[in-house]
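fyi for ur records
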Amino acid sequence: MHRVPCIPLGVYGIDVVSMKKETYKAVIQHISRLEGQLASVKQSLQTEHPDCDTTAKTLHAASRSFASLREAFVSCVLEHKFVDAKTITTAKNAKEFTSLLSIIRG
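which gave:
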């Protein structure tokens, strides 16, 4: 399962604007991979004799990919929209925040 990297804001002196762009870029790339998997399933089903085994495996992979995309999106929104960098600058808060994100990501 591919995970989109998200790093707590400001904890490591990271430029928040650049990080947001990189994180969103990674989420967009994940969406593109998922679109490719779904297009492959669609294309297979449009043939006269689809390869059901391969198509089922691709669909299963797309399902797992969608689950990890959902987790990445939720954790990134939490980090970038609802958590202020000042909130997690202490070591205790950063550790708790990272632990919470680990739970969300599975």
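The two ends are 11 Å apart (CA to CA). thats all i got for now
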